[in-house]
Amino acid sequence: MPIKVQIPAPLRPLTGGAQEVEVDAGDVAGLIEGLESRHKGLRERLCDTEGNLRSYVRIFVNDEDVRSLQDKATPLKPGDTVAIVPAIAGGVVGPLARRDTRG
Amino acid sequence: MRIVRAHLDAIRAHALSGYPFEVCGVLIGRNGEPGRAARVERVVAVANREQEMPRVRYQIAPEDLIRITREARDLGGEIVGYYHSHPDHPARPSETDRRIAAEGLSDGVIHVVVGVSGGEASATAWVFRDETQGFLDEPLEVE
């Protein structure tokens, strides 16, 4: 049984508009490679140039953030549901101003 | 984007009641067909999870987004955008908003920004196009 991956709207141009795709993988790293092989360009949106998950992208396995599990080494089993979720944040002051504020 | 007056009023009221802190929320609705504006059908206020500087920063927890995504799907809709307030700052995206949107997954996503000043709240809508173009003005059609 493949793993279901929920795709957020901003990534759907890469999946032909699909809200959910299915991938066979044993862990999160394999899942990302599986996604890339079928939907070229997805890996770049999920990972930085060093292959780490981007700061403002979260991957949840059955409602648990992989950062609190084993990150890209988090194992997957058939029937798991994976959700790709943006981390939404912002505000009028950025990290530079934050450092300035602290002197 | 299209939104009914009551939903827009709810966003402004949330921004005013949360002052002097930034508030945030999620816009539920339907993405428009090509050439048609997205329609907001429900507004969900969520907690600002920013711990250090909630007066000038906001953060929506991914856990909240998962829950809201599921609820929206059950009702036949989806997340079409987000809103947040800028206490004592203009109702337009900041450089921080642009930088984080560029790093995250925000292409084509609507952001309503509410400026709060002198007991008044004004809202503008924007769509994040991509890292190069940044936020573009999104016409706000109040129904």
Walk me through this protein's architecture.
The complex is a heterodimer of chains A (103) and B (143). Chain A is an alpha+beta fold. Chain A is 23% helix and 23% strand. Chain A has 3 helices and 6 strands; from the N terminus they run E-E-H-H-E-E-E-E-H. The N and C termini of chain A lie far apart (55 Å). Chain B is an alpha/beta fold. An 8-stranded mixed sheet of chain B has the order 8-7-6-5-2-3-1-9. In chain B, strand 7 and strand 8 (134-137) form a beta hairpin. The longest helix of chain B is centred in the N-terminal third of the chain and has 14 residues, at 5-18. Chain B starts with a strand and ends with a strand. The A-B interface holds A 6, 8-11, 13, 19, 45, 54-58, 60, 63, 65, 83-95, 97-98 and B 22, 24, 31, 50, 52-53, 56-60, 62-63, 65-66, 69, 78-80, 82, 84, 86-87, 89, 93-97, 99-101, 103-109.
